[in-house]
Amino acid sequence: MNGISRRLRSAAVASGLALSVGVGVTAGTGVATAAPAPDRASGGAEAATCYGSATNVTFAMGSDEAAHTFGPYWTANPRKCGDINLKITTWGNASTLRSRICFKPTGGNDFCAPWKGLKKAETLNKWRVLATDVIPGTKYTIQLDFASGTFRGKLAD
Q: Across the strands, what pairs with 100?
């Protein structure tokens, strides 16, 4: 487990959250990328309960290319996915969109995962895991940065 993952896990456990963040770093670049979502399309019942329960989301970024926060959202209770998954179906203006999840525990001490880059060619119309092993009923927000325009898609948690 690398230092970032270890710190994320420690901070999450200290905040009362269980999660793993699907972040990988492309060798030699230092650029974080989203881990691909498991293929639930062939998962039958799992696909029906997780991706089948996805809700439509719109992220209006404006034209400033600054960080914007969307939500709050709550993970399904009882658990449907166990993960926070995003599929962007309409891409705004950006070649790479930075994203991260910020958890909002009831006791305070918000916890934000590191930023990760989502590239249009690798992300458009594909499910991406933003966080895994999230406790049912967890409150969170999604932050997006380095983009403008409107992004639309589906959120499954």
A: 143
